TrEMBL record:
Keyword Magnesium attributed: yes
Aminoacyl-tRNA synthetase listed as a keyword: no
Keywords for the protein's UniProt record, in alphabetical order: Magnesium, Metal-binding
Source organism (scientific name): Dissostichus mawsoni (Antarctic cod)
GO terms for MF: metal ion binding
Protein name (record): Crystallin J1B
Pfam families the record matches: ADP_ribosyl_GH (PF03747)
Length: 318
């Protein structure tokens, strides 16, 4: 049964979240020997490991990483506002990741001094990463531009699915993605990479599976009349490593579960790569291409589905 554009838009949002949750217990394993040992107990299905093997932080299996949580907050804001509302998004991110939240742990303190006593890892709870800590400091300081101007990690790519799902096929899509990303990452290279990722995801939402997707997006980046041009678009054609790893899974493998498993076996920042892979496969197949058991094991799935349906319904009313 062929999927509709609405099915694929919802699939992109859910695919990203489910893949993020699947990889979360094995996020940030950089030691090859440790990774090999952990995988030996799990193969051929390393997803949703019952106990976290993350050497930096520990969360309950089925919960999201900080990437998945950022995507959730963005999805919630879009559902409530019906648009990218930077003021609303700023307030929601601060409320979700700021003081008094589960993210407010000593090691994650935005004001923690260099040279402070070394933390014992892994910490019991989620990890507040560099861009989120800078965002909190900027909000506290009353700055108009709240995004971190030096961070160029994968956060933008991991949380773009809700915005692309809402605006796919519309000329303002890339502008909306950029607005959402700069709230926490006000870095030009980060934005350029995220917009390149958004072009891929939009292509799949609009067209479904396409073996020529890479050629289509590279052609867009080379087009002098392209939407929302960035100074660094041509540099992005070379593709930064983390994004390149995620894109490899999308272009070379055939389905969501095998692509996520493959990227998990590479170690490192598995969840950031997995979330983009999940978004792209969900965008190609809709919900029917996402394993039922993976949806069931993603703790926030019912709420995510409700919000995704709300956002896509609002996009159809524009």
């Amino acid at each position: 049964m062929a999927s509709t554009l609405a099915d694929r838009a919802i699939g992109a949002i859910i695919g990203a979240a489910v893949a993020d949750a699947a990889a979360q217990p094995m996020h940030w394993i950089y030691n090859p020997d440790t990774l090999k040992e952990v995988l030996s107990d799990l193969e051929p299905c390393p997803e949703f490991r019952p106990q976290s093997a993350n050497p930096f932080y520990r969360r309950t299996t089925g919960e999201q990483t900080c990437y998945g949580d950022q995507a959730y907050v963005l999805l919630e804001s879009l559902s409530q506002c019906g648009d990218v509302n930077e003021e609303d998004l700023t307030k929601r991110i601060y409320k979700f990741f700021g003081p008094g939240t589960v993210y407010d742990l000593p090691l994650n303190d935005p004001y923690r001094q260099k040279g402070a006593p070394k933390a014992i890892l892994p910490i019991d709870g989620p990890w507040r990463n560099a861009s989120l800590k800078a965002f909190i400091r900027n909000v506290d300081a009353g700055k108009e531009e709240t995004g971190c101007d030096v961070d160029c990690q994968m956060d933008g790519v991991t949380k773009l699915a809700p915005v692309v799902a809402m605006y796919a096929g519309r000329p303002e899509m890339l502008e909306k993605v950029e607005k959402a990303i700069r709230v926490t990452q006000n870095n030009d290279m980060c934005v350029a990479v995220t917009l390149a990722a958004a072009r891929f995801l939009e292509h799949f939402i609009l067209n479904g599976p396409d073996p020529n997707a890479l050629d289509a997006v590279v052609a867009q980046l080379n087009d002098p009349n392209r939407q929302n041009p960035q100074e660094l678009d041509r540099a992005v054609i070379v593709l930064p490593d983390a994004f390149q790893g995620a894109l490899h899974g999308v272009l070379k493998l055939k389905q969501l579960d095998e692509a996520v498993r493959d990227t998990m076996r590479c170690g490192g920042c598995t969840s950031s790569r997995a979330s983009f892979i999940g978004a792209c496969f969900g965008a190609q197949t809709g919900l029917q291409g996402i394993p039922e058991s993976w949806k069931e094991r993603t703790l926030r799935y019912p709420l995510l589905l409700e919000l995704a349906q709300s956002v896509v319904q609002k996009s159809q009313q524009m």
